[in-house]
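hiii, so i know i said id send this last week but things got crazy w the move. better late than never?? heres the sequnce for the chain we talked about at the cafe, plus the structure i predicted for it. fair warning i was half asleep when i ran it
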Amino acid sequence: MFELEPLIRLGIFIGVLLIMMLWEWRAPRRPQHIDRLRRWPHNLLLVIINTLVLRWCFPLAAVGAALLASERGWGLFNAVSVPIWICVVLSLLILDLLIYLQHRLFHAVPLLWRLHRVHHADLEFDVTTGLRFHPLEILLSMAIKLAAVTLLGAPALAVLLFEVLLNATAMFNHGNVRCPKRLDRWLRLILVTPDMHRVHHSVIPKETDSNFGFNLPWWDRLFGTYRARPAAGQQGMTIGLNQFRNPTELRLHRLLLQPFRRR
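okay and structure toks below
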């Protein structure tokens, strides 16, 4: 199964992406004022660049690191006798907490924020926003993930599940999709929903610094960073960053150079 990991991830990625695009077309949550053709090609090209850079710099990837750690006996779960299902569940929870803490770190440290603001500078909020990250941030994130997987001794199955879930939920919770209010209220008890995460992309700093979770919503509630809704409401809120309001900033070369500009 693990030999097919790239194909499994690619298949699920394409499937979820197409489902979310169709959902956004059929039931959008907010009207979009910038044509998709001005945004999507650049956001999706960034995904391709990030994938190639990752494969070149980290050919082992997270699942490969888990298999190597198991083979060498590295990490906590490879040093203790624990049922595999407990290892899988704990690994999923710990890795998700790590992503939450890493996300907060990328907001708190100015140098890291320069990289992460590429994600926030999108002037619309849809499924492709969830894929829009600077290559240097992707590399740093993978380095942190590899270290965590190795130290934890996380089972390869848990790492594969986590990678698939994280990628799928990132596309889901960035979707410009309409969801019944009652369903959203119950769903956000176990999963970060689009209405919950959209608050994080508000132009208002105190709203940007909330709802950091990508997958599980519990960490925001536990650490006091949960915000139920934006002050201006879902329809009235402004997406993006004040210093990057010009649509020319949506172009690929501008995204790649953005962290190195003093603005």
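btw Residues 17 and 171 are 7 Å apart (CA to CA). thought thatd interest u
miss u guys!!
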